[in-house]
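Is protoporphyrin IX containing FE placement plausible here? Inputs below.
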Amino acid sequence: MSQATSATATSPQVLPFYKAIPRLVKDPVTELAKMGVEANGRIVRLDLGPFRPYLISHPDHVQQVLKTDWSNFVREGMFWRPVQRVTGHSILGEGDGWASTRKILQPLFTARYTASLAEDMADIISECIVELEDFARTGRPIDGGHQMTTIVNQAVIKVLFGGRISRDTAERLAPEFATCATSIGFRLLVPFAPYSIKVPGDRAFLRSAKKIDEIVYPLIEQASREKSHSNEVVSELLTARIEQDGKADLRQVRDDLVSIYGAASETTAMSLTWLWSVLHEHPEVNARLQDEVRRVVGDSEVRPSHVAELKYLRMVLQELLRVYPSAWIIPRQTVADTEIGGVRIKAGSQVLVSPYTTHRLPEFWDRPSEFDPERWANEKAERRHRYSFIPFGAGPHVCLGQHLFYVEAPLVIANLLSRYRPVLTNPQRLTPIPGASVRPKEKLLLQLEPIERNAA
Ligand code: HEM
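Reply from A.M.:
I modeled the complex. Tokens:
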């Protein structure tokens, strides 16, 4: 239900075209956050010509859009239309299709189920990290963003298909997903352009989408023929779909798998990419993290059982998600006329919930621009506004992959740090650029200095 509009509406802070555009062209992510912070969490209306979205950052307003009045703020229009072209009718959609999928997926991504996938995930992550040995030996730097994407893609594919997919096929699949994620950029800028008009990126996008189908469908068919039950997502999905719908529609299972992949991979890979720049800028955090990994893991292989003991690493990840929430905006479209914080908003308007801004509001965060993992030391005792930290969204659409993230990311980081000391060879100020996830514009080149290890 939409909120009733009151007689005494207040106006949003309006940023006129001539002021908004030059700022957003220069550095859109940073400037958008500054606009919200300058407005002190008040609603900002951006005048971007035909596109006039509302920027939402105050935790009370976030709560209304994502939780209390969520059904009036739907995933349609800008951003979602191009995304749904690959993900189809599944968990990244809206309405009945989303609701029935959420019912199936929710029990799948519990802490317990995630734990059952973790051993396989640890194996593949460790394999990928050992393969970096050659870079360490020759001193050739790795491209941080590219390697984090490769490792995360392999781990997510393992979670989805388990032993059903060979390493070779997974290696063919991962770049196709990556192409879909990056070639969608232009469509995100012109979401209402009809598909009959070709825009840059379309050809690469369609080619990759076709290749994904050519690889994924046979895997689903194989899983549906085999009666033996295993715990990877594709088998669980087939079983759950048969239980719920009486049969498993292969197209539906394909949409589910591609949607989970889309939600799980880029977000995680980009968070891990920012980490290496942060550690370079904060040598004290870096040293403490290295010590913890050394103490907990030693010379052994990193296993999921180590994750719970890596407490400082978890604090670093929480702070990383505060400062660089990879889901930097959560877009919505209003269904009916409504009011947020006294501002009247018409049906069909675009509303941008901005975790990147909310996480920087001085009213809710002490020293918001400082990277300080210590602020998470006493998380339970802290009395924060519940909607002031929203890297995983909130309400009925809240992220299903939080447990997975807090297992997968520590496995990657601890694996790397137990073998190498990554040194950033091209330190520079990074510019966050918008996309489905926020990523640094510049490449991060990391030299991997090997750590002396005693043979296990
Ligand atoms: C750093 C890592 C991640 C971040 C920052 C992140 C962030 C988010 C956010 C903000 C949403 C809410 C979207 C909305 O309200 O429209 C979301 C939804 C979702 N996330 Fe994540 N996510 C991450 C990792 C993962 C992983 C590893 C998975 C693996 C399963 C996952 C699965 C999902 C799914 C399925 C949804 C849709 C839930 C729904 O609409 O009902 N995410 N995520």
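Short version: Residues 13-438 form a domain with the Cytochrome p450 fold (CATH 1.10.630.10).
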